[in-house]
Amino acid sequence: MLLTLLVALIVLSALAPHEIPRYPELVNWPTIGTLLGLMILTKGLELSGWLHHVGRQVIARLSSQRSLAFLLVCGSGLLAMLLTNDIALFVAVPLTLELAEFAELPLRRLVIFEALAVNAGSLLTPIGNPQNILLWQLSRVHFTVFMQHMLPPFFIAAVCLLLLTLVAFPASRLQTRPHREVPSLHKPLLLVSALLYLPFLVLADLYFVWAGLVVVLAVFLAAFRTQLRQIDWPLLAVFVLMFIDLGRLAEYPVLAYANLARPAVLYVTGALSSQLISNVPAAILLSRYSGDWQTIAWAVDIGAFGTLIASLANLIALRLGRQRGSLVAFHVWSVPFLVVVGTLVWLWLAWA
Predict the structure, then answer these.
(1) How far is CA 321 from CA 4, 185, 235, 299, 329, in A?
(2) What distance in Å separates the CA atoms of residue 251 and residue 249, rounded to the nearest whole number?
(3) 232 or 181, which is more confident?
(4) Residues 34, 71, 58, CA angle at the centre, nearest 5°?
(5) In the chain, is it the N or the C terminus that has fewer CB atoms within a 10 Å radius of its CB?
(6) What are phi and psi of 170, to 5 degrees?
(7) Residue in 111, 87, 99, 88 with CA at minimum distance from that of residue 53
(8) Left, alpha or beta for 278 (phi > 0: left; psi -120 to 50: alpha)?
(9) Count of Cβ atoms closer than 10 Å to residue 33 Cβ
(10) Which three-class secondary structure string do you get for the chain?
């Protein structure tokens, strides 16, 4: 993905070299700052050994793959409603990797379903994902009004995901691994990471992300410098390049002649464009052509399913999961899910 984005950057720069000085303006730096802060704090939680202890407790209380899958899918979706889909994955995927230390798990499939779950859960609330935040601000409606408008696509996506989880994961008993010594907790690292987590999120929500990031970096540089070396810096580079490449693509007037006044056309356009340029740029692009924020929200949120690039959460999940063959396996599950859920939501929209 990093190489693909670099090639795209070279092509775009060759086509319009005069736009190169504008590249830094295309990057949403508060998002990058928020992402870096979360990567540092969740890495601190992971390296503290806390997830290891939680994983052992979860495995001890569950009896089957299906029950574990339901727990992780529902938990990921609920977290996404409250903390945004990206943040939810920074909790769910490392926890899943720790669970695999205690039992034989279909790890790759679990991570893929967690990506589907956070995209489905984030549908409901105006703070569930970046595109909802954008459209909520543009719509100027109350929090609860936004949720009411998003109930139909959320209900359809959630029911379909639960049914798919029922099919995808057997009710067979978990095959636990031989017990091994659980590493001791790194209590200072756990305490600092946990205490900084909520204040950092609050500062990011209040648009003081840089103040929060400075505090996080200062504490970790002073006390836990070695942990900073284990941050996934290439993932951060992927996000920067995505903002530049997709921001440039979104500036081309490719939708000038589409009949976006029709909700059905607007919905299909949003869902399909999300597959090519990701749903956040698609939301920005469509909002320039239409004031129908509800249909745009339905379109780009459902458009999170499908291709890997359709949602930044998809990229985060597979990058954190680090499982071979994930790219192909993700599309095997996600593309049919998009077709089914997307069609059902379109039928609901047409009927309404």
Answers:
(1) 20, 23, 12, 27, 13
(2) 5
(3) 232
(4) 95
(5) C
(6) -75, 165
(7) 99
(8) left
(9) 18
(10) CHHHHHHHHHHHHHHCHHHHHHHHHHCCHHHHHHHHHHHHHHHHHHHCCHHHHHHHHHHHHCCEHHHHHHHHHHHHHHHHHHHCHHHHHHHHHHHHHHHCCCEECCHHHHHHHHHHHHHHHCCCCCCCCHHHHHHHHHHCCCHHHHHHHHHHHHHHHHHHHHHHHHHHCCCCECEECCCCCCCCCCHHHHHHHHHHHHHHHHHHHCCCHHHHHHHHHHHHHHHCHHHHCCCCHHHHHHHHHHHHHHHHHHCCCCCCCCCCCCHHHHHHHHHHHHHHHCHHHHHHHHHCCCCCHHHHHHHHHHCCCCCHHHCHHHHHHHHHHCCCCHHHHHHHHHHHHHHHHHHHHHHHHHHC
C-alpha angle 300-302-308 in degrees, rounded to nearest 5 = 85
User: Where on the phi/psi map is residue 175: left (φ > 0), alpha (ψ -120 to 50), or beta?
Assistant: beta
First to last CA, the chain: 39
Q: Which two tokens stand for residue 5?
A: 């984005």
**In the block, residue with structure tokens 């720069």:** 13
Q: Are 168 and 114 in contact (CB under 8 A)?
A: no
| The pLDDT of residue 271 | 95
pLDDT at 257: 59
Bridge partners, 176 (sequence order):
103
Does this model's pTM top 0.70? My answer is yes
pLDDT band at 180 (very low <50, low <70, confident <90, very high): low
Q: What are the backbone angles phi and psi of residue 125, rounded to the nearest 5°?
A: -105, 155
What is the mean predicted confidence (pLDDT) over 149-176? 93
Nearest in space to 280 (alpha carbons), one of 239, 318, 321: 239
Q: Which amino acid is at 216?
A: V
